[in-house]
Description:
Elements: E1 20-21, H1 29-32, E2 35-38, E3 40-41, E4 47-52, E5 57-62, E6 68-76, E7 95-98, H2 109-112, E8 116-118, H3 124-128, E9 137-139, E10 154-156, H4 158-164, E11 173-177, E12 179-182, H5 191-209, H6 213-216, H7 220-227, H8 231-244, E13 249-259, E14 264-273, E15 278-289, E16 295-304, H9 309-326, H10 340-347, E17 358-359, E18 362-363, E19 374-375, E20 400-402, H11 433-442, H12 465-480, H13 484-488, E21 491-497, E22 500-501, H14 503-516, E23 519-531, E24 536-546, E25 549-563, E26 566-576
Parallel strand pairs: 2-12, 4-11, 9-10, 15-19, 20-23, 21-26
Antiparallel strand pairs: 1-3, 4-5, 5-6, 6-10, 7-11, 8-9, 13-14, 14-15, 15-16, 17-18, 21-22, 23-24, 24-25, 25-26
Amino acid sequence: MAFVNERRVYTPAIACVVVVFLFLACPGFARAGWHMNLQAEPHGPSQFLVVDKSAQTFYLFEQKSPLKNLAKIPCATGQVMGDKYREGDLKTPEGVYFVKSRLNGGLDYDLYGDLAFPLNFPNPIDIIKGKSGHGIWIHGRGHDVTPRETKGCIALNTPDIRDLDASIHFRMPVFIGERVTWSKGPSKINPEAKDVIEKTRQWAQAWQNQSEDFFELHDKKKFAIAQGESFARFENHKRKLFSRLPWIKVHIDHVAALPGPDYWVTTFRQIYRSPTFTSAGIKRLYWQKDDIGEFKIVGMEFEQLPLDRTVLASLEDNLASDASSRQLGTPSSSVKAQQSEARLVAENTTKPQAKKHVESGVQSTAPKPTPLVVAQNTVSSAPETPAASQLAETQRLPSTVTVDHNTTKPKPKPQHAKSDHPESKAKPVEQHDKKTTQLASNEKTTPPVKPVPKQSKPAKKKLDIVAVVDIVNGWSKAWQSADINTYLSYYSDDARQGRRRGKNAIKRQKTRLWESKPPTLVDVTELRVTETDSGCVASFVQEYAGVGVSARKGRKELFFKPINGSWRIVRETFERM
Length: 577
């Protein structure tokens, strides 16, 4: 059982309950700020954070019926009261935001303590309203917090944020308002929450149907402002894709509704598939009412999901559910989750023959399996291919996987010796009887040497696609969070990184850099894993940013070898784009 402590929070494992709460915005929001009235309601996240600016109080809530307050601790917000509108105004923004990442290294201890959670300010609504600024964090403090002492962030006492650490997770919603109240009554359904959730499902269905209704669900003017491109460009590109693709499948689940001061956000997991591309991620749609009171999409955000076994299993289940309707020619029975990636690759080579479809220079009728392409919300430089478009369903997510799928296996050769090291190679032996006999005759004191069969090379470590993708995802997360020990665990002792040679050299350079300029973003997209003779290579587009360091984008390659049964990075290269 969890309980509230004014200075410390003690929270055991919290069950996932898919419910949300009701926020009622008072009519005088523009002047008085956002007054949040919380109430349990059966749509949304199981946990959320709340900041009451007037009371300088930070809350952790769990959705039960009634609503349950798990933590109540003091906090500090911006020095100036009111909603944030421009950079440097010393105000804390008001609205619904989401945790983007976790930082626990290289921070100025007096200002931030040793732990921080950046938020996604400005969100699409903020951009529409013309708000400016960045770097709004929930962070610790090297001294006791005092009310309204920050430049816009939410500061907690370091012991308190450490206690909360286990309860704060990526994409967790954070509601910031001028004043907070909540009801202890039972769960109630909010009609507006029900409306935006239903419209979200209509949006997904219209997208899948390639229908005109898809475009009508958007507020064209506001959407263009939020996304930074004209709606005409967005629409034209969509129509171009609709004309190319024989079918599109859009599956959404875990749909939740979260209200803001004058808007709603629906958040959900999205799985998109077309004949040659597949994407999975968490999408957020931002909704506002138009002039006649109808909710329209005014902005969206998309965050990648790692291509792990859970996602692959979900994709496999989704494929199996409609395989017959798509006439893919794949078996109707489901296979094990660990074989999902193979089935997805197979799907790309069993498309209907009635309509030939060529994208990215790969023929759909090619005799060899086409690499699985998993798309994500990133912008690529080749607009003619769906994988390179600026649209959500065709932008790349890790990972593109290239694997040599042989149709026949070579006959195994007898092994007469085993290697103690996976990278070791058997020494060559003499194969001809005459030469062996001659060598023996020249050494009179040595007994005759019998012919020795040729030794087989040590068995090559089988490429586990999902394992390598998991490693790249873990490596990038460790880098972004400045977790030096976890980061170094992915490298071999003699790894080469640019001019640095060896793990110790890498450690010295990263430690110095992260002390003054800790990373804030490490984004991996367009991941391609290719098998090699000695292991594999992971190639991807990397975007990096740090405190005081502007975003840098380029192509990175990680060269892996199996060492002591595990994949380790032995070499790393980077070429700026």
